[in-house]
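User: Structure please.
Assistant: Input sequence and predicted structure:
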Amino acid sequence: MSTNVPALVGTALDDVITPCLVIDLDAFERNIQRMARYIDKQGLRLRAHAKTHKSANIALLQIASGAVGVCCQKVSEAEALVNGGVRDVLVSNQVVNPRMIERLAALARQARVLVCVDDLHNIDAIDAAALRYGSRIEVLVEIDVGAGRCGVEPGEAAVPLARRIAGSECLRFAGLQAYQGKAQHVRDYAERKAAIDTAISRVSGTVERLREEGLDCDIVAGAGTGTYRFEGGSHVYNELQCGSYVFMDADYGRIRMEDGRAIDEFEHSLFIYTTVMSKTKAEKAICDAGLKAQSVDSGVAVVYGRDDIEYIGASDEHGVISDPDNRLRLGEKLRLVPGHCDPTVNIYDWFVGVRNGRVECLWPVTARGMSL
């Protein structure tokens, strides 16, 4: 990693080596503070999702601004973040591989560790590992509230799982994981709200059913950047798991608020910084940010701050930019908003933090490639 540094602190932005990830620190900090103010006003908890940035530096900044901890999706991500100083991590996913369960139990000796389950045998395996390591793990029952992915059906199906956790020797029943991932990028406001209203109803019924069994949910978790105000105002969810709000990618820029305008409460702060590497044709330019510089599952990157040019395609190492008025010049630098920030970040070693046209900080992508 140390041999692939795109800039040094103090470098002028124009001199940063591309392609690389640049963070506009002013916009980034405003995003963190806006979410912090919302959480504080609503009396909620924020457990920011670190799969967006995979960075211990960013996680610690979020915690310093009021987040109770972070989420991640893999045990290896959790290990990297704990080693980077984070002391409260939820693996918001199932961990079933025996070796990874062992690593989870070992990690719980260093930090507060939580995990999600949707299977009775998995609960037993985690409890046995925690016993061997002398650790204590907090466990959320995951219910499927519409994403069609992991989780048991809401309601009665959650009861035996919660009972098993509560009766375990080294586990603690902490509550519910209820994330409606499919709803996050639904463009239409009314459709997005309807999906979350359904989820809220299912979660509320499950919380009540567990309460009838004497099983209280300290944590009712879920929500993302696209829907957090719905869950946050529900009086059912108490812990939000927003992640992309710190960066805001192009796909989030396409969803709409109630009045039809694009969502605008958070700013684009993460950019793929790129250079025009070839300009032999009047109507287009070639830049150095191609497929290996971005994830295109949500579409190719969007040129930031320009309506006279358009990023229109990519091959492995080249990006094609439509330039109908022949304005771009060889060596010119551009900022691109990635289509999907999470998998794009996982391509890079470093974030280059920029303020007032100069590099202020370099943050490693701490958990880059951590997929176990």
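The radius of gyration is 22 Å.
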